[in-house]
Amino acid sequence: MKGMHKFLPGLFLLSVLAFAGVQRAGAQQVAVNTNVLLWGALTPNLGVELVTGEHSSVGLSFFGHKNPYGLKSRLMGFQPEYRYWFNGRPMTREYIGVGMLLTTYDITWKEKNVYDGDAVGLGLTGGYVFSLGRRWNLDLSGSFGLLWFHQKQYYVHDNYDDYFVDEAVKTNARGYKLFPVKLGVTFSYIIK
User: Fold this and answer.
1) Contacts of 160 (CB under 8 A, 6+ apart)
2) Which of 4, 6, 31, 138 has the highest local Cβ count within 10 Å?
3) Residues 6 or more apart from 66 whose CB is under 8 A from it?
4) 65-75: b or e for each residue (b if 16 or more CB lie within 10 Å)?
């Protein structure tokens, strides 16, 4: 991933905090999950969620695709998330939280516009989890927040050399947008 190395220290810190919380939790639960909305967009994804306390859990999802439905598109990313559960039993019923999105992409839109860059998003999450049995859950969720991006943006037939300065690729578009950081219809399997 091109510019993602800048965000690795933050991801490392989040991972350390998550696993430190898991060590203190009395009854630990671990679940693996997948978002069927992303599968509908031909984007394979897999996540894990760890209970970190009576009212909290931490999750991390990975996703990516290459040329879905014949479109020229490459996308890879991950989404860490913290959840606060209202009912005192994580992985059941309503929750709120904070979610983050880190992604890199190279997309040709309508065979004329190219967007090649990285994005970072932070948003508030809310959802409801239905128990489908002893080990299966269905999670309906949404997250809306701010997305920061920096990218090379050009037309397919542009002179690509215009974007090089001293052999380094220069981004020509950056900014912020309000954006749905995550939308999910997610099936989870509770391992323990």
Assistant:
1) 154
2) 31
3) 73, 74, 75
4) beeeeeeebeb
* DSSP string for residues in 87-138: TSSTTSEEEEEEEEEEEEEEEEETTTEEEEEEEEEEEEEEEEEEE-SSSEEE
Cα separation of 46 and 62, whole Å? 6
Per-residue model confidence (pLDDT) at position 25: 45
Average pLDDT over residues 75-90: 92
Q: Which of 149, 159, 165, 93 is nearest to 126 (CA)?
A: 93
CA–CA separation, 78 vs 64, rounded Å? Answer: 9
41: its two tokens: 């967009």
**57-66, 83-92, 101-110, 157-166: range with lowest mean pLDDT:** 157-166
The average pLDDT across 138-149 equals 95
